[in-house]
Design goal:
It is an enzyme of class 2 (transferase). Its cofactor is Mg(2+). Catalyzes the conversion of uracil and 5-phospho-alpha-D-ribose 1-diphosphate (PRPP) to UMP and diphosphate. Belongs to the UPRTase family. With 209 residues, the chain is α/β, with parallel strands linked by helices. The protein has a single domain, classed as Rossmann fold, CATH 3.40.50.2020. Helix content is 31%, strand content 32%. The protein is built from six helices and 13 strands. The strands form three sheets. Strands 1, 4, 5, 6, 7, 8, 9, 10 and 11 form a nine-stranded mixed β-sheet that branches. A two-stranded antiparallel sheet has the order 2-3. A two-stranded antiparallel sheet has the order 12-13. α5 links the parallel β10 and β11. The N and C termini lie far apart (37 Å). Bound molecules: 1-O-pyrophosphono-5-O-phosphono-alpha-D-ribofuranose and uracil. The site of uracil has 10 residues, from α6.
Length: 209
């Protein structure tokens, strides 16, 4: 069973409060989502493998640490996942970025896939699937299935806010995938929105309704 990690760092929790607040406008919402994504990326990469490298400092030779092992790939789920990409790339600018396009049918709440593009060396990468919201879990589970079908075998899921229902769906469908959240909220409402959540992440990021 994949583990659920909820980041309780004070900076993440503080910024998340303003992200949730209806008084927060589009510009500030975007900036805060980027900042929280970067802070989460800092935590999520804690287990990256290091290797020794020998370099020369101005004073002498040094055996220092550098990141080894699998290369990273980010996979934002379109469209709201895009709002977290730049923040993460600030910390890992060399990561490749794939995209999975899904929207949630408002009537059935089922995910509908409309676009997939991944880096060519899928098997050799560790992927972080990104979406601000893990609600019913349908979109995240489908996105992970989609990238697994194309050869991905090392996947983490990173969302700002999760609902218990969504966590359960992803854990059942993908027991090999750990889930990283800034908050595990209370529940879903009758329209599939996370309570208390932050509303519609895509609309708040892009200023649409
Ligand atoms: C939102 C969100 C997730 C999905 C979560 O996207 O960004 O992708 O809903 O819901 P689920 O866990 O119940 O599947 P939405 O479908 O609104 O599309 P958008 O990103 O294009 O706005
Ligand atoms: N998608 C969102 O953007 N918000 C929710 O609360 C649930 C799904």
């Amino acid at each position: 069973m994949g583990k659920v990690h909820v980041f309780d760092h004070p900076l993440i929790q503080h910024k998340l409060t303003f992200i949730r607040d209806t008084e927060t406008g589009t510009k500030e919402f975007r900036e805060l989502v980027d900042e929280v994504a970067a802070l989460m990326a800092f935590e999520i990469t804690r287990d990256l493998t290091l290797q020794d490298v020998t370099i020369n400092t101005p004073v002498g030779e040094s055996t220092s640490k550098a990141i080894a092992g699998k290369k990273l790939g980010l996979v934002p789920i379109l469209r709201a996942g895009l709002g977290m990409v730049d923040g993460i790339l600030q910390l890992m600018p060399a990561a490749k970025v794939g995209h999975v396009g899904l929207y949630r049918d408002p009537a059935t709440l089922e995910p509908v896939e409309y676009y997939v593009k991944l880096p060519s060396d899928v098997q050799d990468r560790e992927f972080i699937v990104i979406d601000p919201m893990l609600a019913t879990g349908g979109s995240a589970a489908e996105a992970i299935t989609s990238i697994k079908k194309r050869g991905a075998n090392n996947i983490k899921l990173m969302c700002l806010i999760g609902a218990p229902e969504g966590v359960e769906v992803v854990q059942e469908a993908h027991p090999d995938v750990d889930i990283y959240l800034a908050s595990l909220d209370e529940k879903l409402d009758e329209k599939g929105y996370i309570v208390p959540g932050l509303g519609d992440a895509g609309d708040r990021l892009f200023g649409t309704k």
